[in-house]
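My current task is to audit a protein record that another person submitted. My question to you is simply how this chain folds and whether the tokens agree. This is what I was given:
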Amino acid sequence: MSPAAPSSARTSRLLDWRVRFGALALIWGFSFLFIKVGTEGFAPFQVTFGRLLFGTAVLVVALVVKRDRLPRGARVWGHLTVAALLLNALPFSLFAYAELTIPSTLAGICNATTPLWGMLLSLVALSEDRPTRVRAAGLGIGFIGVLTVLGAWQGFSGLDVTGTALALLASFSYAVGWIYVRRTLADTGVSHLSLATSQVGLATLQLAVVTPLFTSLPTSVEPLPLLAVIALGALGTGYAMLLQYGVVAEVGPTTASMVTYFIPVIATTAGVALLDEHLTWNTPLGALIVLAGAALTQTRTRPAPTPPVAGHRFAGVDPTPAVGTRSVEAERVGTTDGAPCRI
């Protein structure tokens, strides 16, 4: 083989990773548009149920093709039930309800606050994840960005407080879920695909119970909202997870987590271009400040060199990224959404 061949192979792999990374950012960025269109024809719980149902279908097909099996043990299933609520059923529903009254652009920007909530929660929940001055500064900068987006100096005039609060609560739920996963579902010995399929399947069952209690069947089904829900589930919840796992396996969770910073940009662009949503100057400026603060909260001091651990994919590398990034544990259970998660 010629010396150029290995270089060519590496370039091909990098291009393949970049293509999948770009597709992941586009899918998750457009998820907020799909939610908005879906709620024009269905109740929020119905949008969430359909999203989870189609997402589960994609993951089940992948599980069968790979001849993988579902996890065993009541303890694992119990933790997965909680993770399904915190990382899927609850935040998905909250975003759907939020977009009844706020634009998809604002929902996408609120989603970017997840690393800030994660950083804040880690001060209480993770004693081993104490902040540096840089990360603490990032937390403060990020919340200044949130206030900028919301137009705090104007008294939040023209802002739907309830819808915005629901979107921020959804992002908070992601952060709580990631910490829960990190503490309970690490080192289960079960494949990430198996855990992700189980988690999303459990979230589907949760919505199957809740949805009939609070909604009634629509009198008619419009094609566009239906297609939006199908795309939201099959692409944003099912296929995107499979893309995410491939990117993480190839370039690691730290690089893969950078997709978080593209999501609000794409969500804003899609909302303005396709839904004619209006932006005031403080919205994109605040979003940039939020992303800058979120990026600072993810910086970590370099750990002292450690001997490689046999069989560990990231031998010699700190295996516990900062909360708010898509950690290895979070990847195993398929935290989406973006995100962060991440939607």
Remarks:
- Residues 303-342 have pLDDT under 50 and may be disordered.
